[in-house]
Amino acid sequence: MTAVTTPPKKQAQRGRPGQSSPKLAYLPIIFLAFAIGVPLLIIVVYSFLEKPSQGTGVKWVFTLENYKALFIQEKLDGTTALDTRYIKVLWTSFYYSLLTTVVTLVLSIPVAMWIATRDARKRNLLVALVTLPFWISILIRTYGMRQIVADEGPIGKFLGIFNIEWSILYSPPATILGLIYVFLPFMILPIYASAERFDFRLAEAAYDLGAKRMTVVRRVILPSIRPGVISGIALVFIPALGSFLQSDMLGGGKTNMVANVIANNFGQARNWPFGSALAVLLIVLTLLFVLIMQGAAQRRGDKVELV
Amino acid sequence: MSHTQTSSRKRGKLVNLRNFPGFKPTAWFVLFFLYSPLLYVVIYSFNSSRIGAVWESFSVKWYFRVFENTDIQRALKNSLQVGLVATILSTTLAVMAALGLLRMQRAGKAVAMALIGAPLIIAEIVLAVGTLGLFIAVGVPLGKVGLMVAHTAFCIPFALLPIRARLSQLDMAPFEAASDLGANERQILRRITLPLLAPAIFAGALLAFAISIDDFITSFFVAGPGATTLPVYIFGMIRSTVTPEVNAISTLLLLFSGSVLIGSYLIQRKRR
Questions:
Q1: Which portions of chain A are predicted below pLDDT 70?
Q2: CATH 1.10.3720.10: which residues of chain B?
Q3: What is the pLDDT, as a whole number, of residue A281?
Q4: Does B41 touch chain A (CB under 8 A)?
Q5: Are A168 and A225 within 8 A, CB to CB?
Q6: Angle between helices A272-299 and B106-121 (to 10 degrees)
Q7: What is the pLDDT of residue B141?
Q8: pTM of the predicted model, to two decimals?
Q9: Interface-testing mutation among B3, B66, B115, with chain A (most A C-beta atoms within 10 A)
Q10: Which of A129, A192, B220, B247 is 20–30 Å from A222 (CA)?
Q11: Which CATH number is B65-240's, of 1.10.3720.10, 3.40.50.2000, 2.60.120.590, 1.40.20.10?
Q12: Which domains occur in chain A, in start order?
């Protein structure tokens, strides 16, 4: 669109009286372009640059090697072979996030429905209890979980009475448990928000009209809380995919997720360009997931706004 | 509730569609699951033993250690300074964005929303290393100022959430009336818009502060050695040695979060 007609100023003001000028948003947009847009751009640019022979940072020479190195390994004798290490890291991240999403979903639907059907007083208290962990540092919550699942922690001590060995810390199950623990409230709250709005008289009407109990659940209750379920899936899966602390503190560095590998390349490994290529891949995967979710939601006629 | 809801009577059987078997135990299990690690942290912060998992006797010595530790005090000061500046800046920018976006053209709005939404969707680690790259490219020294800029950026979407929600519910009549009566934009903003938005702005600021204080990954990469924040310091403590001191700090932070939440709840209830 090239032809832009500027309406007389008075007219524009009349369009919606009393509203502020759009100019007010210019400063925040410029700031975000600098503090969010430019860093993302830098990551994309760095992923196509070479690593300097020593030190950190980048050498301004264009290359596609970083992307090649994600999948192909060059051996000392010059031959190349498929390198599955980073594919495994991506698969691990995807798999852990998926598992986290499924478990939190299965737990959250009953919890959200149960809270939504309590009386107002009890409901407010329960919602506050579920919300409180959101205000508590994720670092502290993960540290608490580490002490619970530690070999000599309460679970280990209890099982020790029966001579059952308990040793999951610094292994994949501990990471997954940590992810479930940290992200569970993010699944409960949006589903609760949907369930709370649901008019249970509709379910009773369906039942009175002859629907079986399970049919009521499947055809009436579940479709009503679907927007909450979709938001919940997005709110759990997306941050889980990029999570760092849980695999670092509970997985003990043995079960690396993609964020840990990116962090390592910008830290000890000192390979910024390769870390950037991984970061670009993570962005692409995240956006792909968002598009799939939005597509699925739209096809079903749900309006889902992630932002 | 004393009065039974309109339970469907069918085939002589009373069916309650509000209670499903297993929901209640699941809910209690989930609450137990959510709180047991926190409870453990609080209880073991009073353990005199050096070894975290072995209960020796009740003691408050780790709290004394925390209060004597000047590194923790410095880290806390850094966290509070960065958190306060980021809260004020991000909330101000969020209010401006929320109001300005209402009348913005579609294309501009899409760009703005993409930038605002990015920190919610893109993994924090990506933005953190990107910001590190930016600061080094532009020559911003790693430290408190850079940290304030980075925190302000990712706090904006959180501060914006309640403000936008409130704005969409507002009745436009007072604005139209004020405009008809000859008030200019500045007067409307100061006398109508901001007072009506005040609770949402407060909620947004609280959210931004919580996000900033809690932040670990960005601070870890951008703080540099001089501006270590509390989460970065705690992370270092957990990594290097196991010390019950961390349980004591955590308990103090839990107390702080809890009282802020209860305080804000009471303020909001008083307003109503």
A1: 1-18, 253-255, 301-307
A2: 65-240
A3: 95
A4: yes
A5: no
A6: 120
A7: 85
A8: 0.88
A9: B115
A10: A129
A11: 1.10.3720.10
A12: 88-270 (1.10.3720.10)
In chain B, residues with a C-beta closer than 8 Å to the C-beta of A17 are: 175-176, 179-180
Of B37, B221, B257, the CB nearest to A148: B37
A51, A140, A213: best to mutate for the B interface, most B CBs within 10 A: A140
| The predicted structure's pLDDT at residue B56 | 82
Shortest CA gap B240–chain A (Å): 12
Mean pLDDT, residues B13-33 taken together:
82
Q: From the CA of B249, how many Å to the nearest CA of chain A? A: 9
CB contact under 8 A, A276 and B5: no
Q: How confident is the model at residue B219 (pLDDT cuts 50, 70, 90)?
A: very high
Question: For the ranges A4-18, A272-286, B21-35, B189-203, which has the lowest average pLDDT?
Answer: A4-18
Would you call B119 and A36 a contact, using CB atoms and an 8 Å cutoff? yes
User: Which residues make Cβ contacts (< 8 Å) with residue B156, sequence separation at least 6?
Assistant: A28, A32, B90, B93, B94, B97, B116, B119, B208
Rounded to whole angstroms, how far apart are CA atoms B221 and A42?
A: 15
Asked if the model's pLDDT at residue B178 lies above 70, the reply is yes
Write down the mean pLDDT value for chain B: 86
Residue range B166-187: mean pLDDT, rounded? 83
Chain A contacts of B196, Cβ < 8 Å? none
B202 and A CB contact within 8 Å: no
ipTM for the predicted complex: 0.87
Instruction: Kindly determine whether residue A19 and residue B101, on different chains, have CB atoms separated by under 8 Å.
Output: no
pLDDT digits (tens, 9 = 90+) for B223-256: 888 889 999 999 998 876 667 889 999 999 889 8
